[in-house]
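DATA CLASS: polypeptide
GOAL: derive structure tokens

***
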Amino acid sequence: MENAAHPQSGGRIVVAGSLNADLTIYTDRLPLPGETLHGSGFAVNPGGKSANQAVAAARLGGTVTLIGAVGEDANGAMLLASTAGAGVDVTRVKRTSEPTGVAVISVDAAGENSIIVAAGANGTLAPADVDPAAFDGASVVGLCLEVPLETVQAAAAAGHDAGATVLLNLSPFAQIPDELAGLTDVLLVNAHEASQFLGGFALPSPAAPESAWEPAVAQFAAHSLAQVLVTLGSQGSVVLDSTSATPVVRIAPTRVDAVDTTGAGDAFTGAVAARLAFGDTLADAARYASVAAAMAATRKGTQTAYPTAAEVADFR
């Protein structure tokens, strides 16, 4: 494994997808339907799953290109400045007349959140915006489902054709066509999304032994998905790999006192992409990502909360 504090070399990462302005309000608890609560703070931060993942990977030493769309407005300018400031190449993020995407986020005293997203400019990202030349030399392609599905599939095909590892974060959840599943090398899902994808298949409890996960390995393999990373929240994650002599590997959680879990899942995904680009196995990448995501949850905000490689090394 590369030195985690000072990674020296690694393949390029291309992330294609969403950029949002996060409108975040902090409150003691999340409101019930029809209820109005007092908030204790408000912030406008750069976000969007893909932008977050790109920034997380770049802060961990990755060489990252972002493909996306923002509006010709102040939020778009903020997002371009934030991602570029983290070292991400944003020359392939287009400006459109549609307003920049927005996420309205409530965060309670325990760090849990609820989120509503309006796509805005993200909805304009089209397959024609996915230039195959952007994927030349890429070793990992990161995707999520906050942009049109046909655009995700075009990026997956471009990554596949370039010989990259295609990492698909199946969030927000949607059923995907068989062709996209076949182009996906690593599927990243939480337990609820995994069960939905498998048609309601009952996953083991987080406390179940590794052997209890073997039927899930077979279920995913039947959908042409050989490597799947299932996140289990505070219970860590599990790697399912039908091609390995060890098809199930449990990844222990990293315990911290959470302040704000918003974007922690994106920190995890970006860290997985970064470590895969540096040549880690999926299990080793997930172990590293567990630390990076936990560290992100100890700080308010999303991109500004993401740790550097040196910070992760110190924590470990």
Q: What stands out?
A: The chain has a mean pLDDT of 93. The longest helix spans residues 282-296. The chain has one domain: 12-315.
